[in-house]
């Protein structure tokens, strides 16, 4: 198992868990870009959004709905950002689909 996120989900690599259910695992980013920076990772290995199919629609919705719930739990009532980088030019550095939840500071536009 070469994928670092698969190793984290399996418990082989430590993480600061924020949430877990049968489909996803959420944890604190080790290099946070905001006061709250969580990564929501499907337990099913999918390399990126580009490799999803219609069969993954429910999982993708679940990621977003869970991000909204975690944002509320972390007091992000003034707003937050969700980001899903796809591919090298999109800024994806780990080849496992993941959703960033960022908040606790003013987000700027355009991003990065």
What are its keywords?
112 residues; five-stranded antiparallel β-sheet; HIT family, subunit A; 21% helix
Describe the structure.
This protein has helices at 4-10, 57-73, and strands at 17-20, 24-28, 36-42, 80-83, 99-103. With 112 residues, it is of the alpha+beta class. The protein has one domain: HIT-like (HIT family, subunit A, 2-Layer Sandwich). Strand 2 (24-28) and strand 3 (36-42) form a beta hairpin. The protein starts with a helix and ends in a 9-residue tail after the last strand. The mean pLDDT is 96.
Count of discrete structural domains: 1
Can you identify the CATH class? Alpha Beta
Treating each run of at least 4 consecutive H or I residues as one helix, how many helices? 2
Q: In total, how many beta strands?
A: 5
Query: Multimeric state of these chains?
Result: single chain
Q: So, the CATH homologous superfamily?
A: HIT-like
Main sheet characteristics: 5 strands, antiparallel
**CATH architecture designation:** 2-Layer Sandwich
Q: In one word, what is the shape?
A: globular
* Strand neighbour order, sheet with most strands: 1-2-3-5-4
Rg computed from alpha carbons, rounded to a whole number of angstroms? 13 Å
Order of helices and strands: HEEEHEE
Helix/strand/pairing class, anyone?
alpha+beta
Instruction: Name the average pLDDT.
Output: 96
The helix fraction, in percent, is 10-25%
By CATH, the topology is HIT family, subunit A
Distance N terminus to C terminus? 31 Å
Please report which band the strand proportion falls in: under 5%, 5-15%, 15-25%, 25-35%, 35-45% or over 45%. 15-25%
- Unreliable stretches (pLDDT < 50, length at least 5) are none
């Amino acid at each position: 198992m070469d994928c670092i996120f698969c190793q984290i989900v399996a418990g082989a690599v430590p993480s600061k868990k924020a949430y877990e259910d049968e489909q996803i695992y959420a944890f604190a980013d080790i290099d946070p870009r905001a006061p709250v920076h969580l990564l929501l990772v499907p337990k099913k290995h999918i390399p990126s959004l580009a490799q999803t199919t219609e069969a993954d629609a429910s999982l993708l919705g679940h990621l977003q709905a869970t991000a909204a719930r975690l944002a509320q739990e972390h007091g992000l009532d003034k707003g937050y950002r969700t980001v899903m980088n796809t591919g090298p030019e999109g800024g994806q550095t780990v080849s496992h689909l993941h959703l960033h939840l960022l908040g606790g500071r003013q987000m700027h536009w355009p991003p990065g």
